[in-house]
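Quick one:
INPUT:
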């Protein structure tokens, strides 16, 4: 079913990925939960989307989402010996789905890599030069 036609309950009924499964997708839908994180903030789940079709739920345990990782330095920045001198812009955008009212995140600059499901949820744009 296309994401524009889905209700919140439709999204909640999707299967979860394995916590350490690597996922690449076109966009991610933010799915707030009613459960509280140890921080006191609500936990969020996220839906991986490919070609306007939902694939799976991604987290369920995160209270924060980090675009291009914690600090915004991109994926695997530590392997370069520290903070990079240049961070390639990712062009993140968010829109609101018409039926469910949920927010959908995407980047104009490539597919999204979803890191493992942890307390903080990190997503990265997969730039063409990173492939």
């Amino acid at each position: 079913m296309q994401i524009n036609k889905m209700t919140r309950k439709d999204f909640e009924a999707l299967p979860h990925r394995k916590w350490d499964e690597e996922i690449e997708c076109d966009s991610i839908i933010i799915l707030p939960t009613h459960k509280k994180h140890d921080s006191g903030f609500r936990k969020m789940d996220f839906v991986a989307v490919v070609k306007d079709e939902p694939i799976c739920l991604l987290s369920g345990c995160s209270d924060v989402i980090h675009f291009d990782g914690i600090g915004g330095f991109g994926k695997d920045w530590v392997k370069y010996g520290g903070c990079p001198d240049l961070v390639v812009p990712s062009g993140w955008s968010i829109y609101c789905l018409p039926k469910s009212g949920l927010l959908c995140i995407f980047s104009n600059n490539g597919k999204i890599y979803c890191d493992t499901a942890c307390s903080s949820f990190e997503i990265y744009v997969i730039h063409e030069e990173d492939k």
